[in-house]
Design a protein that fits this description.
Elements: E1 2-4, H1 6-15, E2 24-29, E3 37-42, E4 49-54, E5 57-62, H2 63-69, E6 72-77, E7 80-85, E8 99-100, E9 106-107
Parallel strand pairs: 1-6, 2-5
Antiparallel strand pairs: 2-3, 4-5, 6-7, 8-9
Amino acid sequence: MINVTEAARQELTNYFADKDVQPIRVHLADGGCSGPRLSLALDELREGDKSVEHDKFTFLINEELAALTGNVSIDMTPYGFTLDSENPVGGGGCGSGCSCSSSGSCGC
């Protein structure tokens, strides 16, 4: 359901190196000119969520969104995280993705 590349896993490890590891939500975010897109955010488990464990990380995704997207792949680029899904959501204008850096900032 949620696949994490080695590069993304390493960036998450770096990000949480001096912090408590928190659940990471895969969600649909407004995307401006590119339309809605999959994104990442730190969050807590909610009713209606699926939870997926990868190493020491817990990924959360709403069951309805999971049914729409199918498998989700999380990768890392020089610009931040990229999320691709088996069944794409949103449009493709200006770009997509979320960035969390090892310097301590996480945002989209």
